[in-house]
C-alpha cells in the first residue's frame, strides 16, 4: 500500500488512508471524481473482472492466474516497478539428477511407477502452473493446493515439489529446495489495471480521461 501511494504521489495524485486501520477507505486529491477503496491483493482481480471497480493495483501473477482470458477482462495501464517476484518450480536440493524440466518429467514418470500415484506439486497458482507444464510437455504430476507456507510442504511430506513466488530464494534454500533451471514460469510485479467490463458511463470515462494524463498514461485500446 505504501509503495502504491508513493507511486501515485510522485505523479501528482495523492492517496491517503482515512480513519482507523480497520477501515478500508481513503482520500484522493489531484483528480476530481476518483474514490479510493482498499482491498487485499487477492480480491482485486475478482473485483476487476466483475466490474465492481474501475481500476486496481495488484500483482500481475494474481491477475494471470485467477482470470481466464485475462486480456479480455482487464487492460494493463502501467507497471509500477515494485513487488518484483518470480513464479518458479523448485524440488528438493538432494535430487541431484533433477535440474531441468526434462529431468522433472523423467523423475515424475519414475515416481508414478514406483509409488502408484503422481508426483505432487504444491502451489496456489494452479492455472499458471498447469498451463506452463502442459506447454512444456510435463504430464505425470498432480497439483495440490497450498495457500501458505508452501516451501514447507516438501518437508511435511504433503508434496514432492513446489511452484511458488520468490524474490531472493532465501526461504527456498532454508527449506533445502532448489529452483529448476530454464527461467521462471512468470516474472511478476505490481501493475495498474483497468476493468474492461466496468461501467464507464455516467461520467467514469470522463474521469479516466482526466486521470490518465495526470499519471502520464494513455487510454488503452478497446477501453
UniProtKB/TrEMBL annotation:
Identify the Gene3D superfamilies for this entry: Periplasmic binding protein-like II
Q: What terms describe the molecular function in GO for this protein?
A: ATP phosphoribosyltransferase activity
Q: Which GO terms describe its biological process?
A: L-histidine biosynthetic process
Enzyme nomenclature, EC number: 2.4.2.17
Query: So what does this thing catalyse?
Result: 1-(5-phospho-beta-D-ribosyl)-ATP + diphosphate = 5-phospho-alpha-D-ribose 1-diphosphate + ATP
Q: Name one Pfam family in it.
A: HisG
Is the keyword Glycosyltransferase assigned to this protein? yes
Per the database record, which ranges form the ATP phosphoribosyltransferase catalytic domain? 41-198
Q: Which domain of life is it from?
A: Bacteria
Task: Describe its function.
Answer: Catalyzes the condensation of ATP and 5-phosphoribose 1-diphosphate to form N'-(5'-phosphoribosyl)-ATP (PR-ATP). Has a crucial role in the pathway because the rate of histidine biosynthesis seems to be controlled primarily by regulation of HisG enzymatic activity.
Q: What is this protein called?
A: ATP phosphoribosyltransferase
What organism is the protein native to?
Answer: Frigidibacter mobilis
Amino acid at each position: 500500500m505504501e509503495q502504491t501511494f508513493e507511486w501515485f504521489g510522485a505523479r501528482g495524485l495523492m492517496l491517503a488512508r482515512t480513519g482507523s486501520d480497520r477501515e478500508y477507505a481513503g482520500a484522493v486529491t489531484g483528480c476530481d471524481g476518483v474514490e479510493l477503496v482498499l482491498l487485499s491483493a487477492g480480491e482485486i482481480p475478482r473485483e476487476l473482472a466483475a466490474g465492481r471497480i474501475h481500476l486496481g493495483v495488484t500483482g500481475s501473477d494474481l491477475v494471470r492466474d485467477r482470470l481466464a482470458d485475462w486480456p479480455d477482462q482487464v487492460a494493463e495501464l502501467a507497471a509500477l516497478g515494485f513487488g518484483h517476484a518470480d513464479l518458479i518450480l523448485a524440488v528438493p536440493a538432494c535430487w541431484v539428477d533433477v535440474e531441468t524440466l526434462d529431468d522433472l518429467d523423467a523423475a515424475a514418470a519414475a515416481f508414478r511407477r514406483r509409488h502408484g500415484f503422481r508426483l505432487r506439486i504444491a502451489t496456489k497458482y494452479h492455472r499458471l502452473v498447469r498451463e506452463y507444464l502442459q506447454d512444456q510437455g510435463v504430464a505425470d504430476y498432480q497439483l495440490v493446493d497450498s495457500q501458505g507456507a508452501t516451501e514447507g510442504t516438501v518437508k511435511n511430506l504433503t508434496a514432492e515439489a513446489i511452484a511458488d513466488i520468490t524474490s531472493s530464494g532465501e526461504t527456498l534454500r532454508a527449506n533445502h529446495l532448489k529452483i529448476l533451471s530454464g527461467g521462471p514460469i512468470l516474472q511478476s510485479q505490481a501493475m495498474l489495471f483497468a476493468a474492461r467490463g466496468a461501467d464507464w458511463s455516467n461520467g467514469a470515462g470522463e474521469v479516466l480521461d482526466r486521470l490518465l494524463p495526470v499519471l502520464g498514461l494513455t487510454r488503452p485500446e478497446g477501453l
